Amino acid sequence: MKNKGILKKLLIIFTINYVIVLAGFILISSHYLKQNNIKVFTGDLRTYAGMLSPYITELYNAGSFEKIGSYIENNADSSHRITLVRADGVVVSDSQANAGNMENHLGRVEISEVFQKEIAVAIRHSSTLHEDLLYVAVPIYKDTRKVAALRIGAPLRNITLLSREFINKNIAAFIVLLFLSLISIYLFSKLLACRISEIKNAFGKLSRGNFAVRTYIKSGDELEELSNTFNLMSENMATLFKEIDKNRAELSAIIESLKDAIVVIDRNGVVTLSNNASWQNKRYWEIPGLMFLGKYIGKSGNAEVELNGKYYSCSLAAIKNSSSMVIAMHDITERKNLEIIKNDFISNMSHELKTPLSSIKAYLELIADEKDETAKKEYLSVIARNNERLSNIANDILILSAVEGKKALQPSAFNMNDVLKEVGLLLAQKAKSKGLALSLHDCDITINADKFYIEQMLINLVDNAIRYTEKGRIDVDAEQDDYGTKITVTDSGIGISKENQQRIFERFFVTDKSRSKKNGGTGLGLAIVKHIVEAHQGSINVSSEPGKGTTFTIRLP
Length: 557
What we know:
Layout: H1 2-62, H2 65-75, E1 81-86, E2 91-94, H3 109-114, E3 120-126, E4 131-142, E5 145-155, H4 157-207, H5 222-256, E6 261-265, E7 271-274, E8 301-307, E9 310-318, E10 325-331, H6 333-369, H7 373-404, E11 412-415, H8 416-433, E12 437-440, E13 446-449, H9 451-467, E14 473-481, E15 484-491, H10 498-501, H11 513-519, H12 525-535, E16 539-544, E17 550-556
Parallel strand pairs: 12-14
Antiparallel strand pairs: 1-2, 1-5, 3-4, 4-5, 6-7, 6-10, 8-9, 9-10, 11-13, 14-15, 15-17, 16-17
């Protein structure tokens, strides 16, 4: 049934195409035949007018209008209409109508044009005869002036009848040709459908796993090429499936292993499979960081390695029934970095706490033996400063811990001017004592964030700017755009070197330790700022040059 369906479709398509071509041929032929007939008839009418015009010119110039009428009637037949029209449009004589009853012809296309050129041709509807005519008009001269127009007309039906007659005579031939074409189309379609069916059946067998199936079509065309391509594909698929069976064990081992970096190494040490394209087809000892694999070739085990600044926990396993081995490399960089941060934090924390505690202990011992009250007051003042430093460290650690865990965030809508005023009141005196101009620009914008933490962020940034600026000014500005809120804190201080800009957000990191101790900094301020910004899913950037000041730019979505 399906073969018959293909055959039926081919017959319908070819028949429709043939009918379309035939209809197009008839229409185009009829059109061009009609145009050709018009051209031939125009030439005939022009010749006819050329024969009549000399005598009519002679009679018209002599004023013999009655003779003109008789001449026109005698020389006109039923298929031609002869009309003489004066230059003012008045009809002098007409072979098929009473000239006295005819309207002015100056508005007729062929009449108006003939007084502009030597001959005028027009196809239009005649209001006198009530049918379409082909008109040819030539001028009548008196001396060198055009005084009248001689017009010869022929019915258009005489022209179109010829093309219809042409179609009627040839339609029978077209029908015979259509019948013969249908027979040839049927035979060709049936042969084509059989060959397509043979290829379809072969594909069906191939899909069921029969890789020995072949087709034998010798047609000398694309179907033969398709048959040969199918046979080649069948052979290649048989080879491919054998290779798939061989590699299935390797693929299963890879799937069951860790999913980060995957490496398969053959007995020659060549990387045959990897999800890192740059390692493919290289020997493992040519890849930095994989040299350790030498002692594990052919064995199973675990190892921890550093590669391109990242740390990996490697699981190595030999593949059964193969001389290859698979290595799964799990990225533990984050865990390692956390361990490093933890160790650095403990070390820095111990150092930061040890200094003020040692100072407090030493001055307490001095107070015990001191008799002078003035000296005691000075010692107590030092103890108070160190105690305040310990308190600041403890408070900063608590804030940092809360923000790091994204706890206690309480977003609300507030006006940025309110926060800037609070920061100004808190730090204005500190800036004034150093002779610095603190400018918090008016910015009447509303943002949605945790007001307490935003205030803490600005306090830390402005306090840091005051601490590291000896002269000049500190400017704080905020604005909103399509991306959110942009806050900038700019100072004219000592600046930060390029190498230190990457580390200023680390806990307890200070660019100038002597200045930090002198000004009572904890080394946690910028770490707190960074975590407050990240807790709000924002970003912070620093732009600085030693001796030319620093600008911190914060963007909050």
